[in-house]
Each structure stands twice: as structure tokens, then as C-alpha cells.
From TrEMBL:
SMART domains: Dak1_2 (SM01121), Dak2 (SM01120). SUPFAM superfamilies: DhaL-like. Residues 9-203 form the DhaL domain. GO terms for molecular function: glycerone kinase activity. InterPro entries: DegV_domain_contain, DhaL_dom, DhaL_dom_sf, FakA-like_C, FakA-like_M, YloV-like. It holds the Pfam family Dak2. It comes from Candidatus Protoclostridium stercorigallinarum. The lineage of its organism: Bacteria, Bacillati, Bacillota, Clostridia, Candidatus Protoclostridium. This is DAK2 domain-containing protein. One of its GO terms (biological process) is glycerol metabolic process.
């Protein structure tokens, strides 16, 4: 099959199918995370990033290549989550910068130039680019793209076949370039996710949109019984006051459904509402249906419903007017100099940050990385000129940095990689100091904290000198596993013994996942008895997946 160019309609299908294929295979990508802990989320982060881009593409009213490229770049930027998602968004940003200049058709040479620009932008987005990652994969794919593009009369399908082959070869090299991958016996998760997206592009062009992927059984077995990341639980209250896509909150009941109505008709009705709005809720059966939708055309929603039956208890609220009232109230409030936004998981952790006068808490962390848009929206809610953001997770820092591009506030990211660092940095805040002085104080406070954590292994592996079985309790510090055992308390004690030195005066335990308060208090007493010169305390953090997070200062 010869295909010389790609038009706007084909480009739209490529983006949608790339996002769909990655979403179908995100659990496989998650399983490739290096550490055998239960919070690997590379595939989920990349999938949510692509889904955000796909939503913007779906909303694009035409197949103009320039408009579609703008939609892809905007959607990926706003939806970028985690390092892998941010880098993916930058790859797409670079590619669309080139492709937007194509008026009606995209050639092989255009695709090669786009990939080259994607590599450039992605490498610039990372302070210290590391080979053996998604960056290596896209770079080697781009190099092959440039070689293929030199051919006369290049075929788009052959181009993608060639690029995908180069990508697979690059992926095989990642364990040799990054020793931690080789030690864990996996290839780079982000690189695999990128290849899945490009495979989705190719499948769309060949008309095989429904084709799924099959991977090595050893990887598949590693994920058996492992809980999938559940982003449905991510519910940060980050309502934007500045723009509402769908103006009318429309609620009603459909009663006395027509005799010929079938259950399938309710499903069709639901799908039709999703085409004209969002926040769609259609529940019930042939006796009665409850409906909720945000739409710009409530009359159309009611018209669709009348095809099913009679309408009852109709309520339509103008969210634009509600929005104006909220905006007016916000504008009347004088801006304060500083605000603070913190990311954390667990009600206990959130309460501690609130007690320290942090303005906005974003629920997130491992397994639920907030997007750049989530962070920017949280900052925009605060009536302050300068906002300090505490990501509290290394996988959220890039998204926080990216939020600077879309927020109306002056965002300053304090590069905290865990919650104890975030708490110490917040405590160092002085409202009388300048931005620069506060950043310096916060950085010093962040670096003064030693942090360990206790969780469990989700697969059998050998890493950092430990032979692990699924279910083993493990202790982490920085990027290494430093202890293993049969119960969380003994492992926590090993972590303290390993990290303590003469400069430590305070030890704080934050207990969460499946940990009882009595067990945490008993461990606190044991540590205090062994290290009488230290103040030892325990707090209910409520964090998921980690029995204990331990801070030594």
C-alpha cells in the first residue's frame, strides 16, 4: 500500500488512536518501572497526557492541520503528568511546531523534521538529560527518520515501519545505557510507552485501529494480581474560574418511557449527550432515567430525551453567571504577597500542611501525579502575587515547572521530592523575607532532611543486593532499597539505624497504609528508647501504599 502524504483527517485519527492504544496498554508500561514497588505509574501518566491531547483534538471543529496541531500541543501541555508525561508533551510540542506549517498535506520529510524538533524540545525540557530513557528512544527514532526521509518518493507507511524498528532497537539498548534498568531486568518504561503511541499512529494509517499489542509473557506475569492505578479517585478541587467550556448545568428525569424504548436506547442517549457536553450522568432503567449534563445547548439535551419519554423536574443553571459572581468576589479581594501550594496524599498529610497555613492542597503523589494544568489552576485560585509550589515527589517537579507557562501567577517551584522535605521547606517560610531569601531558606531546609519509607515488593526481582519475593516488606532511601523484612516495624527500625548520625535530633514517623496507631506508637517508643537524645514522634499521614514515611532531621 503506497501512502505519500497525510492530511488533516488522517492526522486526527492518528492522535486519537495513539492515545487509545496507549490507554489499552498502560498497565504493561506501568509494570516496567524499575523498582518493584506498588506505585509505578509511567504508563498511566503518559496515557493521561495523551488522553488530554485527544480530548482537545476531538473538540477541534475542523481538520485544518494547523488547528489540530495547536489542539495536540495545548492538550498535552495541560494534561502532562509525571516526568514521562511532561517529556511526551514536549516531544509532541516540538513535532506540532513543524507540522503546523504544513498547509494541507504532511510528507515523509515533514514527519522527519517534526521528530527532529521533538527531540530538540524534549532534551531542553530536562535539566540533566539521561540516556537510556525515553529521550534515547525518540532520538534514535528521529535519526532513522532523517535517514529514511532522504529517499526519493518516500512512503509514509514504510517510514513508520522503519522508525518503529529503530525504536525497538533503541529500547533494547536502554538497559545497557542505564545500569539500573539492567539490574531490574526491564527496558525503559517511557520508551515503551512512546513506541506504543507511534504504533497507534501506524495502525491508524493502515486501518487496523482495533489491533492491540502483545508483549513478552515474563513481563505480563510480573503484573498479575497487581492492583491497577485508579485515577478515578483523583479528585483535586481545582475548578477554574476563568473559563467555562459548557455553560449550563442541566438536570432532569425521563419518566414514562415509550413502550418501544430499549435499554440500548438509553446507551445511545448517553453517547449523544457526551457529544454536546461533559460531566454526563445517565442512570436508571426503562422505568425512569436520571440525567445530568453540562452543555451549551440544554434544548438539544431535552430534545434527545423527549425521544425516550416524558420530562420531569427540569433544572437548568447558568454556570457562566455563577462564575462571574465568583470572579467578582475574587477581584475584590486584595492580593497578598505570597501563597503556597503543596501536593500530598492522605488526609493526615493534608491536615498537617493546612495547619502550616498552606493555601491549596492538591491530592496526589505516587500513582496519581497531578497535571501541569491541575497545579496551575491551584495557583490561580490563590490571591497572591508569588506562589511557592511544593511537588513533594520527583515525578511531579517537571509538571510543576511546566505549570509556569499556563498560570497567571508567579510560580516558584521548591524541588521537594517527598512530603517530609515539603514540610521542612514550608516551616522555613518567612513572610517578611524576599522571594529569593525564602527560596534559599527552603532549599537549605529541604536538603537537611533524611527520608526513608516502608512499602512492599510487587514482583520477584534482584536489586540493590536484595533477592526479593512478591510481598516482601522493603525499606527505601533516596533511589535505593536499603532493607527488607517480614513486618513494617522491623524494616522501619532498620531504616532509622541506617540513616541516623550525630547531627540528627528529631525523628518523625508518618504512618499510613494498613498501619495501626498502636503499632506506630510502639515503634516510636522503641526508637526513642534506642536513641534517647532524639525527639521521636508519630503522626497519622494516611498515605496510600506506604506503611511508614520516616523523616530524620
Amino acid at each position: 500500500m503506497a501512502l505519500k502524504t497525510i492530511n488533516g483527517a488522517a492526522l486526527r485519527k492518528m492522535i486519537l488512536n495513539g492515545a487509545k492504544l496507549l490507554d489499552n496498554n498502560k498497565q504493561h508500561v506501568d509494570s516496567l518501572n524499575v523498582f518493584p514497588v506498588p506505585d509505578g505509574d509511567t504508563g498511566t501518566n503518559m496515557s493521561l497526557t495523551l488522553i488530554s491531547a485527544a480530548k482537545e483534538v476531538t473538540a477541534c471543529p475542523n481538520n485544518n492541520i494547523d488547528a489540530l496541531c495547536e489542539a495536540v500541543s495545548k492538550g498535552a501541555l495541560r494534561g502532562a503528568r509525571g516526568n514521562s508525561g511532561v517529556i511526551t508533551s514536549q516531544i509532541l510540542k516540538g513535532m506540532t511546531m513543524v507540522l503546523s506549517g504544513c498547509s494541507e498535506e504532511i510528507t515523509v520529510k515533514d514527519l522527519a523534521a517534526a521528530m527532529d524538533k521533538g527531540v530538540e524540545i524534549a532534551y531542553k525540557a530536562v535539566t540533566k538529560p539521561q540516556e537510556g530513557t525515553i529521550l534515547t528512544v525518540i532520538r534514535m527514532m528521529s535519526e532513522q527518520a532523517a535517514k529514511y526521509a532522504k529517499r526519493a518518493n518516500g512512503n509514509v507507511l514504510d517510514f513508520f515501519t522503519s522508525v518503529l524498528k529503530a525504536g525497538e532497537e533503541a529500547l533494547k539498548l536502554t538497559p545497557e545505557l542505564l545500569p539500573v534498568l539492567k539490574k531490574a531486568g526491564v527496558v525503559d518504561a517511557g520508551g515503551r510507552g512512546l513506541l506504543i503511541v507511534f504504533q497507534g499512529f501506524y495502525n491508524s494509517l493502515t486501518g487496523n485501529e482495533e489491533v492491540n499489542l502483545d508483549f513478552d509473557d515474563s513481563i505480563r506475569k510480573a503484573t498479575e494480581g497487581r492492583p491497577a492505578n485508579n485515577y478515578e479517585q483523583f479528585h483535586a478541587d481545582l475548578t477554574s474560574l476563568d473559563s467555562i467550556e459548557f455553560a449550563y448545568c442541566t438536570e432532569f428525569f425521563v419518566i414514562n418511557l415509550k413502550p418501544e424504548a430499549k435499554e440500548s436506547d438509553i446507551d445511545v442517549f448517553r453517547n449523544r449527550l457526551m457529544e454536546i457536553g461533559d460531566c454526563v450522568l445517565v442512570i436508571g432503567d426503562l422505568s425512569m432515567v436520571k440525567v445530568h449534563v453540562h452543555t451549551n445547548n440544554p434544548g438539544q439535551a431535552l430534545s434527545y430525551a423527549l425521544e425516550l419519554g416524558e420530562l420531569d423536574r427540569i433544572k437548568i443553571e447558568n454556570m457562566l453567571e455563577q462564575n462571574r459572581v465568583l470572579l467578582a468576589h475574587r477581584e475584590e479581594t486584595e492580593l497578598k504577597p505570597y501563597g503556597m501550594v503543596s501536593v500530598c496524599s492522605g488526609e493526615g498529610m493534608a491536615s498537617i500542611f493546612k495547619d502550616l497555613m498552606v493555601d491549596e492542597i492538591i491530592e496526589g503523589g505516587q500513582t496519581m501525579n497531578p497535571s501541569a494544568d491541575d497545579i496551575a489552576s491551584a495557583c490561580d485560585k490563590i490571591n497572591a502575587t508569588d506562589i511557592f509550589v511544593f511537588p513533594n515527589n520527583k515525578n511531579i517537579i517537571l509538571a510543576a515547572e511546566q505549570a509556569k507557562e499556563i498560570s497567571k501567577r508567579n510560580i516558584h517551584v521548591v524541588k521537594t521530592t517527598n512530603v517530609p522535605q515539603g514540610l521542612s521547606a514550608v516551616l522555613a517560610f518567612n513572610p517578611q523575607d524576599s522571594v529569593d531569601d525564602n527560596l534559599e531558606s527552603m532549599e537549605e531546609a529541604r536538603e537537611a532532611v533524611k527520608v526513608g519509607s516502608v512499602t512492599f515488593a510487587v514482583r520477584k526481582t534482584s536489586i540493590d543486593g536484595f533477592d526479593l519475593e512478591e510481598g516482601d516488606i522493603i525499606g527505601l532511601s533516596d533511589k535505593s532499597i536499603i532493607a527488607k523484612g517480614s513486618d513494617p516495624e522491623s524494616v522501619a527500625m532498620e531504616i532509622v539505624d541506617s540513616l541516623i548520625d550525630d547531627d540528627i535530633s528529631t525523628i518523625t514517623l508518618y504512618y499510613g497504609y494498613k498501619t495501626k496507631e498502636d503499632d506506630a506508637n510502639a515503634l516510636t517508643e522503641k526508637i526513642a528508647e534506642k536513641y534517647p537524645d532524639c525527639d521521636v514522634d508519630a503522626h497519622n499521614g494516611g498515605q496510600a501504599l506506604y506503611y511508614y514515611i520516616i523523616a530524620l532531621e
